[in-house]
Amino acid sequence: MCPPRYFAVDYVINPWMDPSTPVDVDRAMEQWTILRDTYRDLGHTVEEVEPRPGLPDMVFAANSGTVIDGRVLGARFRAPQRAAEAEHFRRWFVEHGYRDLTMPRRINEAEGDFAWTGSVLLAGTGFRTDPEAHAEAQETLGVPVVSLRLTDPRYYHLDTALFVLSEATDTRQAQIAYYPQAFSPGSLRVLRRMFPDAVVAGTADAECFGLNGVSDGRNVILPLEATALADRLAARGYEPVLLDISELRKAGGGPKCCTLEIRK
C-alpha cells in the first residue's frame, strides 16, 4: 500500500475524476489509514511504499505489479500522468528482495486488470491494459490467462467490475463477484460458464465501487455504501467489513485500488 500523502485530482483519466471538486487530503489519509489498520487487525501484513510528490495516484498500489508465486510482472501505464509510478514501484520490489521481476513491454496496469483466482488469471482489457499484455502475463508468470473485455468506461479496470472472493486451485471451486453490465456479451458468457455460482452485483453496488472489494476468503472489505452486496456475501458465509472510501473514490478508486496482494 502507498499512503495518499500527495493525493489530488488534478487531471482526468477516468470518468470519476473531476478537478473542480475539492479534495480533502487529510480525509483521504484518514480513510486510507483505517483501511490499512483493518488489514492488520484481520491478521494481514501490510508493506508500505513511500509516495512521491507529483504522483497523486500512487495511492492506487494495485496498479504497481502482479505477484504470483514470488514472480513479479511490473506495470506500464497508459496515462502519461502515471507513467513514472512504474519505476518507483520497480525499485521497491528490487529493494525488498524480489529478484524474479520482469517489466512489461506492453501496457499493463497490473492488478487493476489482473485478478488471480488461484488457478487462472482473469485479465481485463478495453480501456487500459493492452490485449497483447495478457499473453505477456502468461509467459512471464507461467499461469493460464483468460481475457475479458470491458465495455463501460466507468468500469475502466477489471477491478472496478469484478473481484475474487475465494481462491482455489480448481477453477470450479473459486468464487467471484462481478457486475455483468461492465462486460462484453462474449466475456459475460465466459464468466457465466466458468463461475456459474458467482455473486452477481447490481448497479447501485457497482456505482459505489462495491466490486472494488478485497477478500481474504472470509473477510471482505467493501465501500460503506455497498449494502446490498454485503448482504449477499453474508448469506454466502462471508464477513463483510464496510469502510468509508468516499474521498479516494473521487479519483476513481476504492479498497482494491489501494491494495496490491503479494502472493509469495
Structural class: alpha/beta
What's the count of strands?
A: 12
Alpha-carbon distance between the termini? 16 Å
The CATH class, by name, is Alpha Beta
Secondary structure layout:
Blueprint lengths: L24 H17 L23 E4 L2 E4 L10 H11 L5 E2 L11 E3 L4 E5 L6 H10 L3 E5 L12 E5 L8 E4 L6 H10 L4 E2 L2 H5 L6 E2 L3 E5 L3 H9 L3 E5 L2 H4 L15
Parallel strand pairs: 2-3, 5-6, 8-9, 11-12
Antiparallel strand pairs: 1-2, 4-5, 7-8, 10-11
Task: Give an overview of the whole structure.
There is one protein chain. The chain has helices at residues 25-41, 85-95, 132-141, 185-194, 203-207, 227-235, 246-249; strands at residues 65-68, 71-74, 101-102, 114-116, 121-125, 145-149, 162-166, 175-178, 199-200, 214-215, 219-223, 239-243. A three-stranded mixed β-sheet has the order 1-2-3, with helices on both faces. The protein has one domain (25-249): 5-stranded Propeller (L-arginine/glycine Amidinotransferase, Chain A), CATH 3.75.10. It has 264 residues and is an alpha/beta fold. Keywords: Hydrolase, Transferase.
